[in-house]
C-alpha cells in the first residue's frame, strides 16, 4: 500500500505554473534576436558604419554570453525567482536607455550634429544581452530541475519559444525589403523593455523549484521511502559503471540497519507503484573544467556553434556573392541599396533566411523527440545525436562551397537542421551528464 504525501496534489499545478512562467521568460530572452530588424535604421538614420554596427553587435553578444556563467551560478544558488527579477530590471533599463539614445541621436542628426556615440548604444545593448542571459538561465534551471521524466522535451519547448522571434524577424524583414513597413525603432525598443520587464517580474512569482512527491511504502513492521541510485561520475554513461544504491532513510525508521533496508528495498521493487530514480552527482567548478567529457563537449560546442553561426549570420552575404558570380549582379555599395533592392535576389535572400529558421525548428524537434524515443525504447543516450548533427553540418559546408544559386537552398536547410539538432539536445545533455543542481552555471 502507498500513502502519498499530502502536498503531492499541489505539485503538478506548481510545476505547470513554473513551466508557463519559464516559457514567458524564454520568450523575453529571445528578443535579443530582433536586433537585425532595427540595425538597418542605425545605419540609415544615425549614419553608423558597418564596423560600428558590428562592434555594437559584438558588445551586445559579449554582454549576453559573458555574464552567462554568472547568471547560471546565480540561478543555481539563489534560485530562478531572484534571477528572473534581476533580468526584468536589466530589460527595462537596457531597452529604455537604448530607445532614448536612439531617439536623441536621430534628433541630433536632423539638427546637423553628430549622432549618439555607437559605444553608448553598444553598452545599452550589452545590458539587454545580460538581461536575456539572466532570463534564459532562470527559465532553463527551473525546467531542468522540475522536469524529470520529460526533461528533453520540456527544455526543447523553451528553446523553440525563444526562437519565435526568428519567425517574426523573417516576416518583418520581408516587409522592410518590399518597402511596405517603416519601423518606429524608438517605440519598438521601449515596448520590448516594458514587456520584458513585466514578463520577468511576473515570472519571479511562479518560477519555483518544486520538490518531487515522496511516496511512503508501508509494510508489516517498517516504512521506507523511495530509493535513489546515485551515479558516481559523469563518464558513467560511457563506462556503464555506477555507484552503490543509496537509500534515503525516513525519520520514522531511524533504527533500521543496512540489512533491513536491503530486505525492504527488495520487497519494494516488486510493488507496481515503486519509483526508481537515477541521479547524477553534481560536477561543477574546477572539477567540471578538469572533466575530460566536459572538455570534449565544450570543444565540440565551440567549433560547432562557430561554424553554424558563420553560415546563419552570413547567409545573405553568401547569396549575394553567388548571385554576383552567376548573374553578373552588381556589388551593393551601401546597406540602403541592399534593403531597397527590387530584383529577385531580395526574395532569394529572404527565402534562405526563412529556410534556415524553419529547418532549425525541424532539427530541434527531430533531435528532441528522436532522442527521447531512442532512450526509452533502445536504451541509447542523447549524446549520440551530436555526431549526426556534425555530419549534417559538414554536408552544409560542402554544399555551400560548390552549389549554384538554385542549389544554395540545400545549404540553408542542412545548416538549419544541424544547428537546431545540436542545440536541441545540448543543454539537456549538460543537465543529465553533470547534474541538474549546477546545470545553469555549467551550461
Automatic annotation (TrEMBL):
Q: Which UniProt keywords apply?
A: Membrane, Transmembrane, Transmembrane helix
The record, for InterPro entries, names: MFS, MFS_trans_sf
Quote the cellular component terms of the Gene Ontology held in the record: membrane
Q: Which GO terms describe its molecular function?
A: transmembrane transporter activity
**PANTHER family reported for this sequence:** RIBOSOMAL RNA-PROCESSING PROTEIN 12-LIKE CONSERVED DOMAIN-CONTAINING PROTEIN, UNCHARACTERIZED NODULIN-LIKE PROTEIN
Write down what this protein is called: Major facilitator superfamily domain-containing protein
Q: Could you tell me where this protein is found in the cell?
A: Membrane
Its placement in the membrane is given as: Multi-pass membrane protein
- Where are its TM segments located? 12-41, 53-75, 82-105, 117-138, 150-168, 188-207, 302-323, 343-362, 383-401, 407-426
